[in-house]
Amino acid sequence: MGEILKFRQKNEETLSVDDRRFLSQEFDDVYMSTDFMIHNFIVNIGKMNDSFNHYLIYRKATNWTMITWYNPRQMAPLSEAENRIRHYNLMKELDTYEIYEGEGVGQHGWDSESFWFVLNIARMDAQELAVRGGQIAYVYGKTGGLPGLIYPDYRI
Length: 156
Prior knowledge:
The chain is an alpha+beta fold. It is built from six helices and seven strands.
């Protein structure tokens, strides 16, 4: 959990005042209680999943991200049709990576959202995509480590 807080603190300093309002404990709780489902695995931020880690080793992944372009900036939700178009556009941006579709299932009344699970993507590349897609946060991890919640620097 300390690693997640370090990411949050580092990035919170670079966000505008408007962006900081999204970094409330309640917002963190929504992400932290989301089940990120990929293949037959459930991944949770800040929690080790040994089976998932073995899968990453098998896939020869050194790092990975779970990223979506659904509902940018977490404002009023877009229609399912608009979100699917954004999801498809993100898929096209990821054409040089090994990707799989997953689903984030929230526990706080938030609708489920599709995401792309991307293997062997550099953190800065994932961050650039998150910013371009208007995302407040994304999930990033390294094989053998805990999944972390990353708040992008919107000044990239």
